[in-house]
Amino acid sequence: MTKTPKLDPSKLREATRLVHGGTLRSQFGETSEALFLTQGFVYETMEAAEARFKGQNQGFIYSRFSNPTVAMFEERMCLLEGAEAARATASGMAAVTAALMGQVQAGDHVVAARALFGSCLYIVEELLPRFGVASTLVDGTDLAQWRAAMRPQTKVLFLESPTNPCLDVYDIAAIADIAHQNGATLVVDNVFASPILQKPLRLGADCTVYSATKHIDGHGRCLGGVILASREFIDKHIHNFLRQTGPAISPFNAWVMLKSLETLHLRVAQQVKGAERIADALAGHPNISRVVYPGRADHPQAEIIRRQMTAGGTLVAFEIAGGKAAAFAFANALSIIAISNNLGDAKSLITHPATTTHQRLTAEAQAAMGITAGLLRLSVGLEDPDDLIEDLTQALSALDRPDLAAE
Q1: How far is it, in rounded angstroms, from Cα 395 to Cα 46?
Q2: Are residues 199 and 313 in the same domain?
């Protein structure tokens, strides 16, 4: 009996790629991907080891930079993202750091959007300058500022979109054009959109980075990150940097991510439905002064969102009238939604950015990003949206008590 040949995974639809993409089966023919918990690998002969190290034959050498389980995760992410190559890392911040530092040297210049996660700002504002790499921060929504910031020494532009935590959305294609016209590259942190809702490489970005800890795991279990780009970009800027510096993802974590990818499109679709309903339910409530959700028509960048995202995402930002005291009282009154600085989880999580993820920023820097004392970031999980809306509504009712007057 002739066995039907396997289809080219690049020809399969996204949901199928997320289940089957990148699978390597051992001689045992396992259904679920194998977990290879090994640091090193053995060779039949000394000559085989020499050839492997010279790159004359393919195979694994050391799990710090190559491992079968990790390779499956990387390949599946490539199929999802539409990338030629990928490298997984120990965390999202390891991915960001490698994607930036792997491209620059002393005397170079980086331009980044001002609205970044606090640790990303640290890399751009403090770490890179220690090694002689200058940086400039701009308003990511203002293309004129991107153009004005460019220098002959500019090598990399960096942004996240939607932004953390105020959910601004930048015109990735236009910013990519600015980078390329000046001989620079564009790196996009796509974690808030997830690879399901936005494809930066298709919009002209040179490199996409993720904290796989968020939607890709989606269950609050493991840390991980991934860098995706062309094969030339990965070979030139990323592979050797990771090989020599060692921010390797654990094969176990990569295996967890592989299993989570099988349900990523289902989870994100359900979370988006919940986020859409919650944003609409919160809008206009007397105790809320502002609601920001990329799926709403009143979002400041609604036209850009329609062009580059397939849906508004799983996060909602909103501002409680009454400042920090009211925001704290509201969050403390929630019974289903948990207080945490994580996002993309199956469980709904709420964060007060001014005192957690962005607390190290000055008051002026927070204000420039739109972070107020009353701002909260809600990551919508997989609970029934009606239960979440009821939880939010009862917590908002607690703010009507006279002892919680506005600051």
Answers
A1: 68
A2: no
